[in-house]
Design a protein that fits this description.
single chain; Nucleotidyltransferase, domain 5; DNA polymerase, domain 1; six-stranded mixed beta sheet; flat
């Protein structure tokens, strides 16, 4: 099956074509149903006018692909790039450089943020993609010619799509902002693996009322869940929902534990949670984490409401989807403290395009 790369020599040839042509279109197909991490099936490559797929089950030497991914002279073109790049980095060990995300670029070319590849190709290039293999298990072998052809369609038109998006951005006067935005993918921290001790910050708290010791319990429970998910190779939510963890933190004990384990492992899980909660309750007060949520005064919330409405109108004048500029949380934090240079609205093209004006109009001293 000529479209499937099963030897290192064939992979080297595909990467050399990318180096000669200056671009490499990328996509991945994976399965993520019953494991902690996605199981990578194939990596689709487009370069030199050809599209092929790397068979990740063959145990190939990934260094040629890693070198291409890290090569600043090769533009890597993807759609909705972050997860694919994280998978490619895990597969090759290489940190991506010089990335062009067609979904991100679309927001600077007159399209809405988050637009899917199928719709974008149709609206930008009048190309229709069939979606016939969406339920494929990409880790099973052999793969059919129809499955591989379907997968390669996701990279086949990316180079042409990039050129069209750049052309439209040039016409709208947004290309410099688009190119600045793409540099986010050069940040190696973007692809870092989860740190178990920090996973408590991702737990959905809703309206939970926790003191500092409660947050110590939440931190311990979330860290345990992450470590066990890694060790047992199961989705973290199978080892306890966010609601279960928050309930532990509120009550200081393991109550109704919602999980998807059975038998002896379920009993083991409960015992480990009970041990973690007991230890967390002994944490000295000054070592307990503080509430990470920010509680804004009504004046700030009112200013943020007005700033959101203003941004929606201003973004239309700028020809950039407002969702690509800032979300409500970013705007609220900005009007509360316009001097915080870590806020995206306080630096780069966002500051020049909207941040300075927003600070003058809505900043709360």
């Amino acid at each position: 099956m000529g479209d499937l790369i099963v030897t290192t020599a064939a992979l080297e040839a595909a990467c050399e074509a990318a180096r000669s042509g200056g671009y490499l279109s990328l996509d991945t197909e994976f399965v993520w149903r019953q494991t902690y991490l996605p199981q990578l099936g194939i990596v689709q490559l487009g370069a030199g006018g050809e599209c092929r797929a790397v068979d990740c089950a063959k145990g190939l030497d990934q260094s040629p692909l890693g070198a291409a991914v890290a090569d600043e002279c090769i533009v890597k073109i993807l759609h909705d790039a972050r997860q694919d790049l994280a998978l490619v980095k895990r597969y090759t060990g290489a940190s991506p450089k010089n990335v062009f995300d067609t979904q991100l670029a679309a927001a600077f070319a007159g399209f809405p943020s988050g637009i899917g590849l199928q719709k974008l190709l149709f609206e930008a290039l009048d190309i229709g993609l069939a979606k016939t293999e969406t339920c494929t298990d990409w880790t099973r072998r052999p793969l059919s010619e129809a499955q591989i052809r379907y997968a390669l369609d996701d990279v086949r038109h990316l180079a042409a799509l990039r050129e069209e998006l750049l052309r439209r951005a040039d016409g709208l006067g947004t290309r410099a902002w688009l190119e600045e935005e793409m540099t986010r993918y050069n940040d190696v921290a973007l692809y870092d693996e989860c740190v178990p001790s920090e996973m408590w910050r991702r737990v959905k708290l809703r309206r939970a009322k926790l003191d500092r010791r409660g947050f110590a319990v939440l931190r311990a429970a979330a860290e345990l869940r992450e470590k066990l998910a890694m060790e047992w190779n199961q989705p973290r939510t199978w080892l306890g929902t966010d609601e279960s963890l928050v309930e532990m933190a509120e009550r200081g004990r393991v109550g109704r534990l919602v999980h998807r384990l059975g038998g002896g492992r379920a009993a083991q899980l409960r015992a480990l949670y009970e041990e973690a909660v007991a230890a967390a309750l002994e944490t000295p007060e000054d070592e307990c984490p503080e509430d990470p949520r920010v509680h804004y005064i009504s004046e700030v919330l009112d200013a943020a409401d007005k700033a959101v409405d203003w941004l929606e109108k201003r973004s239309a004048e700028l020809h950039v989807d407002h969702a690509a500029i800032a979300n409500r949380a970013t705007i609220t934090a900005f009007v509360d403290n316009v001097a915080d240079e870590s806020n995206p609205l306080a630096c780069g093209w966002r500051w020049e395009a909207v941040g300075r004006d927003m600070a003058e109009r809505f900043g709360v001293d």
